[in-house]
Design a protein that fits this description.
By secondary structure, the chain is of the alpha/beta class. It has 16 helices and 14 strands. The chain binds pyridoxal-5'-phosphate. Pyridoxal-5'-phosphate binds next to α5.
């Protein structure tokens, strides 16, 4: 049997579909965010990163770096084992207190990543509930889908942010059956926001539990960075709030916050929590420093929103196909995988601008896009340079542009209509 051939064939299939992924070899430069050094074919090039999920640049904040190095200097690098076998580093105890306070919950539990926190928590919750049905938004992240799958529970997928569809599904299940509604606050590829309060109303009416992924909102929304649920004043209505320490907080790790009983049950039953080494103390300490900073400082959030708005307006004026977004995420529609990759390559090679192409299966076919994430540290000059570069690339690849506009940004509308506004580009 030629085993290698199976793997080579699998890779060939991706090449044929023009969605083989290449990762840039980058070295970020602490203190000079959003610049990085890129290495390719033995050449070093300084580039500007426009697709980082270090949304606020906190991964390079001097206090966060200091917490990381100081703690590592004092306690060493690794955690020394799983919490089950080796105990809990004090840094994690403090981090969990900070997180419970952030979301105003009785408890918090930290995992080695946001992915693991979703996979472990959803699967454990749905296993512990007898005969549970999970109602899952169709655009939920892969980590939630894995958790649902692992639970073995029945699942019903509702149309994205569609309350009527969700309600009809809730109605179709016996009132006395356990129900879990799993959804996100900010959807990271479209930049739209879930109607959290209305979903909680439905949960109340039909006796369901709620599980909310706030990965793309924590640190960035709400007066203390508690996310969209904090902004909307509904944190107490959501049973489980999940987040990451790796995006706006600029570190690494994931977590849930919930009632004492839920946190203790997941701590006690989830293999993805129990059988893996804990976060390093330096990372926990860096994450806590970042969370504490963003609880009181609003400057980063305001500058991020301003720069996102400014970037959207500039794209709009240039006639580039901005997809409507209510948030800091700025998606630019390309419409096919090959053009998306070519556009990304040209931006990098000719303009020193790095925006990773987003292709299927991350987004549906025909909606391939460049996902731009302006941060507080992208200056107006960088935004101008980005627009100039994009216009050049759009012309060279003969991609669709509108007549340059002077009207304000397109308002977000529901479902497929968002996509229909911008027909897939040729080229
Ligand atoms: C990135 C992401 C995760 C996973 O978080 P990590 O900390 O990167 O593992 C979970 N949910 C959503 C919606 C995400 O985008």
């Amino acid at each position: 049997m030629d085993y290698q051939a199976f793997f080579a064939d699998a890779i060939d299939a991706l090449h044929n579909e023009k969605r083989y992924r290449v990762f840039a070899d980058l070295e970020r430069i602490a203190g000079r965010f959003p610049y990085a050094i890129r290495r390719a074919d033995g050449v070093e090039q300084e580039i500007v990163v426009w697709c980082s999920n270090d949304y606020l640049g906190m991964g390079q904040h001097p206090d966060v770096i200091a917490a990381f190095t100081e703690t590592a200097g004092r306690m060493g690098v690794g955690a020394g084992g799983t919490r089950n076998i080796s105990g809990t580093n004090h840094s994690i105890v403090e981090l969990e207190d900070e997180l419970a306070d952030l979301h105003d919950k009785e408890g918090a539990l930290v995992f080695t990543s946001g992915f693991i926190s979703n996979e472990a928590s959803i699967s454990t919750i749905a296993k512990l509930l007898p005969d549970c049905v999970i109602f899952s938004d169709e655009l939920n992240h892969a980590s939630m889908i894995e958790g649902i799958r692992r639970s073995g529970a029945q699942k019903m997928i509702f149309r994205h942010n569609d309350l009527d569809h969700l309600e009809s599904m809730l109605q179709s299940v016996a009132p006395d059956r356990a129900k879990l509604i799993a959804f996100e606050s900010v959807y990271s590829m479209d930049g739209d926001i879930a109607p959290i309060a209305k979903i909680c109303d439905l949960a109340d009416r039909y006796g369901a539990m709620t599980y909310l992924d706030e990965v793309h909102a924590v640190g960035m929304y709400g007066p203390r960075g508690g996310g969209i649920a904090e902004r909307d004043g509904v944190m107490d209505r959501v049973d489980v709030i999940e987040g990451t320490l790796a995006k706006a907080y600029g570190a690494m790790g994931g977590y849930i916050t919930a009632s004492r009983a839920i946190v203790d049950a997941i701590r006690s039953y989830a293999p993805g929590f129990i059988f893996t080494t804990a976060l390093p103390p330096g990372v926990a300490s860096a994450a806590r420093t970042s969370i504490r900073h963003l609880k009181t400082s609003d400057a980063e959030r305001q500058a991020q929103q301003r720069n996102a708005e400014r970037t959207k307006a500039a794209l709009q004026r240039a006639g580039l196909p901005l997809m409507p977004s209510e948030t800091h995420i700025v998606p630019l529609l390309v419409g096919d995988a090959e053009s998306c990759r070519l556009a990304s390559n040209l931006l990098l090679e000719e303009h020193g601008i790095y925006i990773q192409p987003i292709n299927y299966p991350t987004v549906p076919r025909g909606t391939e896009r460049l996902r731009i994430t302006p941060t507080p540290l992208h200056t107006d000059a960088l935004i101008d340079a980005l627009i100039t570069a994009l216009v050049d690339v759009w012309q060279r690849l003969d991609l669709d542009r509108h007549e340059p506009q002077t009207t304000p940004a397109v308002q977000a509308v529901g479902g497929n209509a968002r996509i229909a506004v911008f027909p897939p580009a040729g080229g």
